[in-house]
Amino acid sequence: MMEFNSVIHGENILKKYGKFRLDIPELDVPRGFATALIGENGAGKSTLLDIIAGIRLDYKGSLRFFDRYDDKDRENDPAVKNAIGYEGTGNYFLPMWTVKQGREIQKLLFDSFDEDKYIEMCRYLAVPDEDNKKISDLSDGNQMKLKLAGVLARDTELLLLDEPASPLDPLMRDKLCDMIREYLQSDEGNKSVLFSTHNIADMEAVTDYMILVENGRIVEQGFVEDLKEKYVVVKGEKADEEFAEKVLYSKSSNAYGFEGLCLAERLDELAGINVKVEIPSLSQICVAIMKQNSALYGIR
């Protein structure tokens, strides 16, 4: 398993509201990589990102950034907030702001905001050139592009992106992956990205490390390469399905055979039956683990 330094380290993070409970005993986000925070809707991804960004302060526990600042520094030292770029859901822009006002306010708020780079990013992302149009009148996709242009126009060490791919079309999702890679490579080893998604298939190409959250807790995490060695896809004939079922993490079947995810260390338990073994995609790993922990399938 690859060792790493943490750009974010959290301990005993706890947040309750209503019947929901976010409970993270330990959190580590590797420095220099793109980390995907994965989970179904309502799993706790946005809550955790809001806590890390300082949008929510009503939580228990502690956070450490860049191995030198804590969450109190994040609130009191402008250097910390200048080093973090955050794109969030909800009222990121006030509804009465025009496109021009959004740009000018970001220039006032952030010391390292580069207006020329922002304009260049907007052109690259094909944002309509309408300075006097209200941001709230733009499509969801174009509002997301403005958010991304804003964080990428700053000199930061860490990007926190909440569901950045959701409102984007397939071409723009591909561009987003390119932009994340370019950001990481611009100062290789010193820049990091943490983004949330509930559809990892769109972002798998850019994901180095994965943290899977279900029901407010981390149920799996690791570098993608390591996870693809930890789990395997097993395919077999219908006659062997019942025998194989006892070691499969998840299973789908039809009239001819079955397919499921299995821990690689348990493959020996399938000795005696004819199965085909394949390397899983990150999406296959996530869906199988989510099924094990999701209320939709009955938490096991």
Structure, described:
- With 300 residues, the chain is of the alpha/beta class.
- It has 2 domains: 6-214, 3-Layer(aba) Sandwich (Rossmann fold), CATH 3.40.50; 227-293.
- It contains 10 helices and 14 strands.
- A 6-stranded mixed sheet has the order 6-7-8-3-9-10, with helices on both faces. A 4-stranded antiparallel sheet has the order 2-1-4-5.
- The longest helix has 16 residues, at 170-185.
- The radius of gyration is 21 Å and the shape is globular.
- It starts with 5 loop residues before the first strand and ends in a 7-residue tail after the last helix.
- The model is unreliable at 296-300 (pLDDT under 50).
Summarize this, please?
The protein is of the alpha/beta class and 300 residues long. It has helices at 45-53, 71-76, 78-83, 99-109, 115-124, 140-152, 170-185, 224-230, 241-245, 282-293; strands spanning 6-17, 20-30, 34-38, 60-65, 69-70, 84-87, 158-162, 192-197, 209-214, 217-223, 231-237, 248-253, 257-263, 275-278. The strands form three sheets. A six-stranded mixed beta sheet has the order 6-7-8-3-9-10, with helices on both faces. Strands 2-1-4-5 form a four-stranded antiparallel beta sheet. Strands 12-13-11-14 form a four-stranded antiparallel beta sheet.
